[in-house]
Design brief:
Radius of gyration of chain B: 15 Å
Strand order of the largest sheet of chain A: 4-5-10-6-7
Largest interface: A-B, 28 and 29 residues
Strand content of chain B: 5-15%
CATH class of one domain in chain A: Alpha Beta
CATH topology of one domain in chain A: Enolase-like, domain 1
Strand content of chain A: 25-35%
Oligomer: heterodimer
Number of helices of chain B: 5
Largest sheet of chain A: 5 strands, antiparallel
Shape of chain B: globular
Structural class of chain A: alpha+beta
Largest sheet of chain B: 5 strands, mixed
């Protein structure tokens, strides 16, 4: 790991100005991806701005019909939160299945979505629930947030502050996990709510995506049978030593049916 | 170089470190607490697990600076004149062979039992997803943790 200057601001305003004042600064959330990337020298920021001291980025609250999770809230905190379990049990379950306990004690929701790993769990939850990403500058609807492989709509110097989820009537998540890393080879999040049915897939493509055909079928009949015959094309899907594109396409249907079956 | 201060095994320590210093490097090199091991150095194997403010973390994937102001417990901080019940149970049930993964296993188990005093076998196995042992097949590790749980809640 190349050396860098370390900053731990106490407020969002301080973090934003530290970010602007540095050459090639990066924000440090839980560090569970960034530090590993820096060890491999795939990233070599001039400055790291550790957000752990910014109190306004932490915490979980229910505000009206929405659940709000601060960007620096860890996966372990989301997984064990009664507020989250009561609002959307599938979201708590998803957080509790990320990585391993030690990773969940450090990794954060803001870090996960800003990184936008194609195999991360949270992108499926945000897309599958129709969440809104709130930054220090604006609000971004999730449908325009994940733009590609490790790419998001975040602009230079923009800081994710929280994520707001609308309340679903029911939701479910099913993941076919890589047995070593617990990353999703394919994960599917489904929900039915005021905005209709949403089906979001992670792990299969360069970034999380929705399956419109499944959403239409489930809107008429929210059951696994309704989507049994709907497959996604394998062209453009990820293919690696863990799973071919064809196998991932197959898994999308299997995980989608399991997610619908588990929805509550 | 910036200065970092933390409480390690109950004792406050302060040192000047390069910002890139990992917590595990700080523990092993600055404090000579070599019970915490570095296995994979990629946050998969769990040999480096320590407690930070009561939560188990992988100290190879955390900067020493990130632990500034925190309380850190390493394997050296468990025994208090006699072995911690989890350590004693690992010994009694032969929950190790080469011993390389053991400090991380024990620290993970201590964290589990602080959060779930009577875990099921399945809960123990799932909790150990981030701790690799290449000798034992985990069977006696799980037995040791079950036995420690019984002893500690008795």
């Amino acid at each position: 790991m190349y050396n860098f200057d370390y900053h731990r601001p106490a407020s969002l305003a301080e973090a934003a100005s530290a970010l602007q004042g540095a050459d090639e600064a990066k924000l440090l959330a839980g560090g569970q991806t960034l530090l590993a990337t820096m060890k491999q020298r795939l990233a070599s920021p001039s400055d790291l701005i550790d957000l752990s001291g910014v109190g306004e980025l932490k915490g979980i609250s229910v505000e009206g019909d929405s659940l709000v999770i601060g960007a620096m809230t860890t996966h372990a905190e989301v997984a064990k939160s009664d507020a989250v379990k009561g609002f959307c049990a599938a979201l708590a379950k998803l957080a509790g299945g990320i990585g391993d306990p030690q990773v969940r004690h450090r990794g954060t929701i803001g870090g996960s979505i800003a990184n936008a790993d194609p195999a991360a769990d949270y992108p499926a939850a945000l897309l599958g629930l129709g969440a809104t990403v709130v930054t220090d500058k604006r609000e971004i609807p999730v449908d325009s947030f994940f733009t590609g492989l490790f790419e998001t709509a975040l602009e230079e110097g923009e800081i994710v502050t929280k994520v707001r989820f609308p309340k679903p009537q029911r939701a479910g998540y099913a993941k076919f996990a890589n047995p070593a890393s617990r990353y999703a080879i394919v994960g599917v999040f489904v929900s039915q709510g005021p905005g209709g049915v949403r089906v979001a897939v992670t792990g299969a493509g360069p970034s999380a995506f929705r399956v419109a055909e499944m959403e239409q079928a489930l809107a008429g009949n929210f059951s696994p049978d309704a989507i049994a015959g709907i497959s996604v094309p394998s062209s453009g899907l990820n293919s690696d030593i863990h799973a071919s594109a064809d196998y991932r396409a197959h898994l999308v249907n299997v995980m989608a049916r399991r997610a619908v079956e588990s929805a509550s | 170089m910036p200065s970092v201060t933390m409480k390690v095994n109950g004792k406050e320590v302060t040192a000047d470190v390069e910002p890139r210093t990992l917590l595990v490097e700080f523990l092993r090199q600055n404090l000579a607490l070599t019970g915490t091991h570095v296995g994979c150095d990629t946050s998969q194997c769990g040999a480096c697990v320590v407690l930070v403010d009561g939560n188990s973390v992988k100290s190879c994937t955390m900067l020493a600076m990130q632990a500034d102001g925190d309380e850190v417990t390493t394997i050296e901080g468990l025994a208090n004149g006699e072995l911690h019940p989890v350590q004693a149970a690992f010994k009694e049930h032969h929950g190790l062979q080469c011993g390389f993964c053991t400090p991380g296993m024990v620290m993970s188990a201590v964290d589990l039992l602080s959060k779930n005093a009577k875990p099921s076998e399945s809960e123990i196995r799932h909790w150990l997803e981030g701790n690799f042992c290449r000798c034992t097949g985990y069977h006696n590790i799980v037995k040791a943790i079950q036995s420690a749980a019984e002893r500690m809640s008795a």
